[in-house]
Amino acid sequence: GCHNCEIRNLIIGPNYQHTSASDKHNFGTNGSIQMAGCNGCTTKIHDLTIYDTGAAINYIPVASGDTGLQVYNVYAYNYNGGVNIAGSSSSNILSGATIHDNYLGSTANWDATGCPYHHDGIHVWGEFGGEILGVNFYNNVVAGDYGGCPTGAVFFEGYTGNENLYDNLFLITYTQENNGIVNLNGFNIGFYNNVILGNLQSGDLCFDVG
Q: In this structure, what are the phi and psi dihedrals at residue 205, rounded to the nearest 5 degrees?
C-alpha cells in the first residue's frame, strides 16, 4: 500500500514481449504497476504509456475503507490484463474508484495453447469475503485485437455492486469471444450510453449479465 501516492508521466515497457504460443507461462499477479489499496487515501495513476507486460495496472488487494483510486489518461497495449482491481478476503472492501479516459488496447499477443491467459481490458473481482463496490468506469476506449483467449473487454465477477459504466466504446476484434465482450456479475450495476462493436462470430456473446 501507499498513502496518497501519485504515479504519472511515465513510459513503462517493454517488460516482457510475449510473441509466441510457446512463450513461458508466467502471468502470476505482477503488473507494470503493482499497488495494494489503502484506507481513506487518494491514489492517482495517470498519464502513462504501458506496453508489453503481463498486466498494466494491478490494484491488489484493495483495503478496508478504500475509496480513492483514480486511473486516467493511461494508454496501454500488448498486455494480458489492462486494469485489475481485486479483493480476496473480508478485510478487502473497496467502496469507490474512478477509471476514466483511458485507452486499453490489444491482448492477442498473449494467446497461447490452451488459453492459460484470459485477456481482459478491466477485470474486477471480490471473492472469499472481498467486496468491490462503487467503481465508475467511463469515457474509456477498449479496442484492438483480443485474439482467441479473451474473458472480456470488461469482466466483473464475485461480490461487486453499485458500479456505473457509461460513455465507453468497446471496439475489439477476436477469433473467439469466450464470455461476452462485456460481462457483468453483481448488483446495482448501471450500464448506459456505451457502444459495443464486435465480430459476430458464431456462438459468441456481446453482452452478458449474471
A: -110, 140
Whether the predicted pLDDT of 21 surpasses 60? yes
Within 13 Å, how many C-alpha atoms sit on residue 77's CB side? 10
Cα-to-chain-centroid distance, residue 185: 14
In our burial notation (b when 16+ CB lie closer than 10 A, e otherwise), range 68-77 reads bbbbbebbbb
AA identity, residue 52: D
Rounded to an integer, what distance in angstroms lies between the CA atom of residue 185 and that of residue 47? Answer: 30
Output the nine-digit C-alpha cell for 111: 494467446
Q: Which one of 96-100, 116-120, 145-149 scores highest in mean pLDDT?
A: 96-100
DSSP characters over the chain: --TT-EEEEEEE--S----STTS----TT--SEEE---TT-EEEEEEEEEEEEEEEEEE-S--TTB-EEEEEEEEEEEEEEEEEEEE-STT-EE--EEEES-EE---GGG--TT--S-EEEEEEEE-TT-EEE-EEEES-EEEEE-TT-EEEEEEEEESEES-EEES-EEEEE-S--SS-SEEE-SBS-EEES-EEE----TT--SEEE-
Q: What is the pTM of this model?
A: 0.94
